[in-house]
From TrEMBL:
The keyword Transmembrane is annotated on this UniProt entry: yes
Name the UniProt record assigns to this protein: Glycosyltransferase family 4 protein
Keywords: Membrane, Transmembrane, Transmembrane helix
Gene3D superfamilies tied to this protein: Glycogen Phosphorylase B
InterPro entries referenced in this protein's UniProt entry, alphabetically: Glyco_trans_1, Glyco_trans_4-like_N, Glycosyltransferase_grp1
Organism this protein belongs to: Lacinutrix gracilariae
Span of domain Glycosyltransferase subfamily 4-like N-terminal: 17-189
Lineage: Bacteria, Pseudomonadati, Bacteroidota, Flavobacteriia, Flavobacteriales
Coiled-coil annotated residue ranges, if any: none
Domain Glycosyl transferase family: from-to ranges: 216-371
Ligase is among the record's keywords: no
TM ranges: 83-102
Pfam families found in the cross-reference section: Glyco_trans_4_4, Glycos_transf_1
């Protein structure tokens, strides 16, 4: 049995695509006869507060499904203040260095990036000719930060670019969740070994149910993080509800109060907010809707929203409004409709063109079958296992 360590900033009981992705990676490797350890902060995302069960602890170790999970101290914060966010990342980096100094580290280590500084700490202190370092890149930072308006091209940005290049250079293998990520890595290090490793979900999809024929409106649903990048508040303000549509929203995040305030101000608009729902319950709830909308406020190079794969596995038709490689995934696999990124007129035009008659039990089943055969986590894990 080969020992392997996974270093990540997100892990269950935290919610979101990042924690789910790493959990399924750890579980999948454990099932393939790897002895998996996970190193992660005390759970705090997305609230920015250490979860109640872990309050007052500096370190917590548990064994779950055979996986040893060590949770380290972090100064938790989701503040918009860049200094406080830097302190939060550095605090976890310091905890990692402390752990490295007093514990035996396996010869194979998978490091999650971003955050860049956390990945840099791991790549810097664990680099060794005798150790294989695998960098799992889910988003391209600092490029994504620049496109989101979080960074400006100044000295700090150049420092982050240097850190990014260091991380790629020291990696023996780079995993990327999109082809754009791998293209970017190869443009910097032409001979770097890479592997496309998508954020495919792993769950037992509930049975698809037919829509209620008495429903005359098309029910759009969004479920996930209500952050700046997703732009759900702007979506509420820009949708043309004369197109006989409803918008149903699940989740939590920075824009939650704005969304709730908008609904309160315009109570006659068919917008419904339900808050955060556990993933297993959400999968069942989502089956009552007609179309899942996946928006991004700005097109982010390298990003492919994991919701594409999750909704497809549920058999939900997708309305994609984010640009980039995600458009190719939806188009090539016939998962739904594409609206030009950032163009709300085009979005409303596409919505107006959708016919209820198109949303049938058989069309949903076809999407589900495509997802099952194409977005195959087992095949992906088999390929990765052979490279470790």
């Amino acid at each position: 049995m080969k020992d392997i360590l996974i270093i990540t900033s997100y892990f269950p009981p935290e919610i979101g695509a990042a924690s789910n992705r790493i959990y399924h990676l750890a579980e999948g490797l454990q099932e393939r006869n790897f002895n998996v350890q996970v190193l992660t902060p005390l759970p705090n995302y997305p609230t920015g507060k250490i979860f109640d069960a872990y309050q007052g602890k500096f370190k917590h170790t548990s064994v779950e499904k055979g996986i040893t999970i060590t949770r380290l101290w972090i100064y938790a914060s989701v503040s918009k203040n860049k200094f406080l966010r830097l302190i939060a990342m550095l605090s976890y980096s310091f905890s990692l260095v402390w752990f490295f100094a007093f514990n035996k580290i396996p010869k194979t280590v998978i490091v999650q990036s971003p955050p860049l500084l956390v990945a840099f700490t791991s790549m810097f202190f664990l680099r060794s000719k005798k150790r294989k370092l695998v960098l799992n890149v889910s988003d391209l930072w600092p490029i994504a930060g620049l496109e989101l308006g979080a960074f400006k091209k100044n000295f700090s940005y150049k420092m982050l670019e240097s850190i990014e290049r260091f991380n790629y250079k020291k990696a023996d293998l780079v995993l990327g969740q999109s082809k754009e990520i791998l293209t970017h890595v190869s443009s910097l290090f032409a001979n770097k070994k890479t592997l496309l490793y998508r954020n495919y979900p792993e769950f037992d999809a509930p049975k698809i149910t037919p829509r209620n024929p008495s429903d005359k409106n098309i029910k759009l649903v969004y479920a996930g993080l209500l952050g700046i990048a997703q732009g759900i508040y702007k979506l509420c303000t820009e949708l043309d509800f004369n197109n006989n549509i409803e918008l149903h929203i699940y989740g939590s995040g920075a824009e939650q109060k704005l969304i709730e305030g908008f609904i309160e101000k315009y109570p006659k608009l068919p917008i419904y907010f339900y808050g955060r729902v556990a993933r297993e319950e959400l999968h069942q709830v989502l089956l009552q809707y007609d179309v899942a909308i996946i928006p991004l406020l700005n097109r982010i190079y390298g990003s492919v929203p994991s919701k594409i794969f999750e909704y497809a596995k549920l058999g939900l038709p997708i309305l994609y409004f984010g640009g980039g490689e995600g458009e190719d995934v939806v188009n090539n696999n016939q998962l739904g409709w594409i609206a030009a990124a950032g163009d709300y007129s085009d979005l409303n035009r596409i919505i107006a063109s959708i016919q209820i008659s198109e949303i049938t039990l058989s069309s949903k089943q076809k999407i589900k079958e495509t997802a099952t055969s194409t977005f195959n986590l087992e095949a992906q894990l088999k390929t990765l296992s052979n490279l470790l």
